Amino acid sequence: MLDVSDLAVSFGEQSVVSGVDFTVDRGSLVGLVGPNGAGKTTVLRALKGTLDPDTGTVRVDGDPIREKSAKAVSRLVASTPQGTALSFDFSVRQTVEMGRTPHLGRFDRMGEDDQRAVERAMERASVAEFADRPFTSLSGGERQRVLLARALAQETPVLLLDEPTASLDINHAVRTLELVRTLVDDGKTAVAAIHDLNLAARYCDELVLLAGGRVRAAGRPADVLTSDTLRDAFDAETLVTTQPGTDAPLVTPLSERESVARRVHVIGTGTPAAAAVSKLAGAGCQVSIGVVPAGDTAAERAADLDCEAVTVPTFAGIDDAARERAADLAAAADAVVIAGETGDGNRPVIEAGNACLAVESGGSGHASGALDTVPLAGLSEAVASLPSATERDAARPLDQSATD
Ligand SMILES: Nc1ncnc2c1ncn2[C@@H]1O[C@H](COP(=O)(O)OP(=O)(O)OP(=O)(O)O)[C@@H](O)[C@H]1O
User: Fold this and answer.
1) Which of 62, 142, 197, 240 has the most CB atoms at less than 10 Å from its CB?
2) HSE-up of 242 (CA within 13 Å, CB side)?
3) Pocket test for ligand 1, best of 16, 52, 196 (most atoms within 8 A of CB)
4) How many Cβ atoms are within 10 Å of 354's Cβ, its own excluded?
5) Any residues with CB less than 8 A from the CB of 7 and at least 6 apart, and which?
6) Domains of the chain: which residue ranges?
7) Distance from the CA of 213 to the center of ligand 1, in angstroms?
8) DSSP assignment letter at 108
9) What pTM value is reported for the model?
10) Which CATH architecture has domain 2-236?
């Protein structure tokens, strides 16, 4: 339905987007996500044909949009702007009626069909109750819904929405995206720039992640929103898990204070080890676990959080290759954390690691009674307070010379 190929736009000397390619299938909702200044609004402007790209083409149903008349485009594409600071001296109803302009001749009056489209658009965007109020008297979120109603009244096959939920409370944000989702499920095609990554992940079929004017990732939300792509695009540490009851990703930004940035190898099984993995990954640690039976809760948690798990088939015992891989991870880690049952076979893995901590109450069965034991709640702080492997290695020759 929409096809963007090799799009490049610059303002004066400044290149703003370049090499942007993506397609939007009919009846799908694509979210444009990315940091401030990434080029999302610029791409939306190119999609509606209101700017002249340096290179590249935007096609709607195979036809270049720049070759269509403004009226033809406005019958195909409706859009809502990012800001709502428009100084309309019109009522809400009159503002929504403007959406019918592409369907009317210059001196035509609105007919019954037009009136019906306006009423229906106001109902759907929940603004009918404001119909007679001046647009300028509404709050930012109410104005945003009126502008959505205006776009809906236009009755186009394509909707372009620039931050449709930016000023909306959580109830109206969800209702707006659910409305867009319903329209898309009924056959419309929509592209929306959305800052809230979790709402974008929940409602969009696909995401296009822009940063620095380029597409950094595109595809299903779960494939686009990974810690690595988000670090690359936003220069931010995040924890990516799954939204309850869906398979959509859930992105939790980590503050620098929370981000412990330590490499930690966990040894243990079951709920205690799973809780330790979550806690450490949530604190921004690079976590590995093993050796652990495949299918154990802790192995599954590690997989959910994109952490390396050294596994062996359940009841198969620990083989040499698995033991060596886990020992290598333990030796390279800043800390080894023991949580839950470890099994005798993991003894060499524990011995390969340097700074060992055990999680309180989950530590039964671990190899040494001489370990520092910490509560789960204080685990990431305890790990952060240990020297990193690099600091330990740097200190080692000094220790040796001191004993010589
Ligand atoms: N008319 C213009 N003249 C000069 N620079 C511009 C113009 N419009 C946009 N830019 C610049 O282009 C870059 C991309 O802007 P754009 O509005 O497309 O980003 P965005 O991803 O929508 O950002 P935000 O999330 O902050 O809305 C920014 O650096 C912006 O300053």
Assistant:
1) 197
2) 13
3) 16
4) 17
5) 17, 18, 19, 20, 21, 43, 46, 53, 55, 56, 57, 58
6) 2-236, 263-391
7) 9
8) P
9) 0.72
10) 3-Layer(aba) Sandwich (3.40)
List the pLDDT tens digit at each of the 404 positions of the chain.
899 999 999 998 899 999 999 999 999 999 999 999 999 999 999 999 988 899 999 999 999 998 899 889 999 999 998 876 666 678 999 999 999 988 887 777 888 899 999 999 999 999 999 999 999 888 888 888 999 999 999 999 999 999 999 888 898 899 889 989 999 998 999 999 999 999 999 999 999 999 999 999 999 999 999 988 998 999 888 888 888 888 899 998 876 655 667 899 999 999 999 999 988 988 888 999 999 999 999 999 999 888 999 999 988 888 999 999 999 999 999 999 999 888 888 999 998 987 788 898 644 444 445 678 888 888 888 888 887 777 777 766 655 544 44
Q: Token pair of 77, please? A: 């594409």
Ligand 1 pocket check: which of 15, 18, 40 to mutate, most ligand atoms within 8 Å of Cβ?
40
Helices 112-124 and 140-153 pack at an angle, to 10 degrees, of 140
DSSP secondary structure of 79-103: EE-S-------SBHHHHHHGGGGGG
Query: Could you say which of 1.10.287, 3.30.110, 3.30.565, 3.40.50 is the CATH number of the domain covering 263-391?
Result: 3.40.50
Buried b (16+ CB within 10 A) or exposed e, 34-68: bbeebbbbbbbbbbbbeeebeebbbbbeeeebeeb
Residue type, 239: L
Type of residue found at 151? A
64 lines ligand 1 (CB under 6 A): no
